Amino acid sequence: MKPIDLDKVQEKLESFTDKDVYVHLETTNGAYASHVNAKAYNVGVYIRNAKVRFNQAKIVGDGKSYRAGLKMEIGWIYAEGLTDWEMFEGEKLLMAGHDREGRLMVALQISETPFNY
Asked: Is 7 helix (H, G, I), strand (E, B) or coil?
């Protein structure tokens, strides 16, 4: 993965607009929290292959971390804390947020075909 290039990622996001797409959304502090601090709560979200259609997509940020939002007819999907991106297999947009130590904290992935289980 490489650091997010705002213009390139925005262009890729827009290429999925008004299409049926599959979304993978994941957040975690998982074991990173509890093994460092016994009083910390473990939290996470994992959604794989949710089929959605969005009519607007936007990525914004300060050059260090970014927030991507997908506007659907009756709601939103968004991920905050994104830092890196790549196109996987030429067609799947993968975005992720990593902490200072390189550990995954958030992922948002979009594809016109389902993701592997």
From this structure: helix
